[in-house]
Amino acid sequence: SDGSIRLHQMTSEYPLMQWNDSTGGQPVIALQWALTRPAVFFVLDASSNIYIWDLLENDLLPVAKQTLPSENILTMALLGEPEKTNGSLGLALAKGSGEIDIQYVKKKWALP
Questions:
Q1: Per-residue pLDDT, 85
Q2: pLDDT at site 110
Q3: What's the pLDDT score for residue 15?
Q4: Could you list the mean pLDDT of each consecutive 10-residue stretch along the chain, which spans 112 residues?
Q5: How does DSSP classify residue 26?
Q6: E strands of the chain, at which residues?
Q7: Model-wide pTM > 0.85
């Protein structure tokens, strides 16, 4: 609820890494690991901002942020086929209006 993200290992109650205030204090609505690239995850906050984290590129801050403030995004899900190496990865964004928006991620964050 405070925008903190914690990365845990299943064998420990203490986080391996913790990023406080990672969304500027906005609650985290959804967090999804990339289906095609294990070090990448996506975060959606309550203000309809999407953050892309690539832990191999930068483990302190997100590598990209997309703001969609007028969209009122309620949740997100990732689309992709991990067994295929074509680098196709998309985000399905559910809007408050009932619409679903599909956005594709740049290849550099999708390629295995």
A1: 67
A2: 80
A3: 92
A4: 91 92 91 88 94 93 90 90 75 92 86 76
A5: P
A6: 5-8, 15-19, 28-33, 40-45, 49-54, 64-67, 73-80, 89-95, 100-104
A7: yes
Pairing of strands 40-45, 28-33: antiparallel
**CA pair distance 51, 73, nearest whole angstrom:** 13
The answer to whether position 76 is within a domain reads: yes
Q: 43 pairs with which residues across the strands?
A: 31, 51
Relative to beta strand 89-95, strand 73-80 is antiparallel
* Cα torsion 55, 94, 69, 106: sign: positive
Q: What is the span of the domain harbouring residue 88?
A: 5-104
- Contact at 8 Å (CB) between 6 and 28? no
Paired tokens of 39: 């070090």
Q: Examine residue 110 and state whether it is found in any structural domain, yes or no.
A: no
